[in-house]
Amino acid sequence: MKKYDLIVVGGGLTGVAASVCAAREGMSVLLCEQSGALGGAMANCLVMPFMPYFEKNPETGERKKLSDGFFTELRARYEKLAPSLDAKVFKNPELYFNQEIFKLVFDEMVSESGAEVLFHAKLCGAETDGRRVTAARFATTAGIIELEADYFIDASGDGNLMALSGCEFNLGRETDHLCQPMTLCFRMSGVDVEEFWRVKPQINEKYKALKAAGKIKNPREDVLCFNWLDGYIHFNTTRIIKLDPTNPFDVSKAEIEARKQIAEVVAFLRNNFECCKNASISSIAADIGVRESRKLIGEHVLSADDLIACKKFDDAIAYGNYDIDIHNPEGAGTSHHFFKYGEVYTIPYRALIPKEYDNMLVAGRCISTTHEAQASIRIMPICCCTGEAAGRAMALAKRGNTGTREIPIAELQKQLGLYPPNPL
Ligand SMILES: Cc1cc2nc3c(=O)[nH]c(=O)nc-3n(C[C@H](O)[C@H](O)[C@H](O)COP(=O)(O)OP(=O)(O)OC[C@H]3O[C@@H](n4cnc5c(N)ncnc54)[C@H](O)[C@@H]3O)c2cc1C
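^ Those are the sequences you sent over. The predicted structure of the assembly is below.
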């Protein structure tokens, strides 16, 4: 079996960014994904839109991008391809998208980079030797296959490679290991969208009244939805609490329960609001979305204090200012800490480095953070930036024939456009 320079586990935005950026620097890369398309939560869980990835001056309206580099390139490729395949026009194209077009963009960019993709390959084991991960095992329709590489990136969201190779991690909250709720996204077509938004306050009022009367079982406090396109509404409103996203029996229960919640909210809307009389469920995501599960305990554990103090780490590899957005792991309610204009935090390279290994990095929503800090860094644009940083770091390690800790950090920051450090 061929040995690769780099194996990337997980084909979300993080894994795509890592694979393409490493392959462009000459590494032989295998990107392994358990589903049949790239995009991760966007593709499998219908997660949308991109949460804001820029700073907006409230006085002048001027914007400064915080998630730049590969993420900007992805969006530009999408905008180039979309008009030939999609007649729909999004009102806010910086944030909204058609995930089906993105799947094509990811295929194209990965192929062009020379990285190889292995779909329908679910990581199920890892081999290690001292401070090195040496091989990863994947369950496929051809049986279990074992693949070797010099370097590994865990971009699986759930931190599957780090867990299977014995890295220290935290599940959910540090106190009780409860994770932010899982949510199964769905969309309704045939909605009178203009009227829907006009009566949205009444929708929430009625929902709350029925919930107080015990007639709505969903623990969520209101109806959370977005205007996807004219005629369609996108719902993020199911809420599954107190189940473990890394326990397959819990995830199975969660998916069944969430589909019940979808039926409940759709019936509530169709029965009570004229704007939804002609509405239908147009799609339910294939997989339930996981906001939070395992998080690495790496060389630095990024905390809410680091974020709120807008700490500028010397080894910064990404910026962020998305709010600390915690959907209550125990029931109703969502808490926020919003960053003001001018408040920007950084993510240190050390948050990607497991203490146990010299040839593995972790990127995306499972990097080394506390429960609270993860609630901010988990958005797709920031995850994508951590993937780019991990892929480029691995190429530097390969070039210098070193471990992940010895790479020239200033060079990585130059490549990421973050040098000299901390210009913000
Ligand atoms: C309901 C919900 C709403 C959200 N809303 C937004 C939003 O509006 N805007 C926003 O920007 N972000 C949002 N997020 C957050 C965001 O979607 C995720 O945090 C982000 O996509 C994480 O990126 P990732 O690449 O780390 O992981 P993922 O996107 O989850 O990608 C991981 C990939 O790894 C694959 N994988 C997992 N395990 C294995 C395995 N064992 N073997 C092989 N492959 C594997 C998965 O199939 C997947 O393709 C939301 C999340 C959820 C759940």
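Residues 182-290 form a domain with the Alpha-Beta Plaits fold (CATH 3.30.70). DSSP finds twelve helices and 21 strands in the chain.

Shout if you want it in another format.
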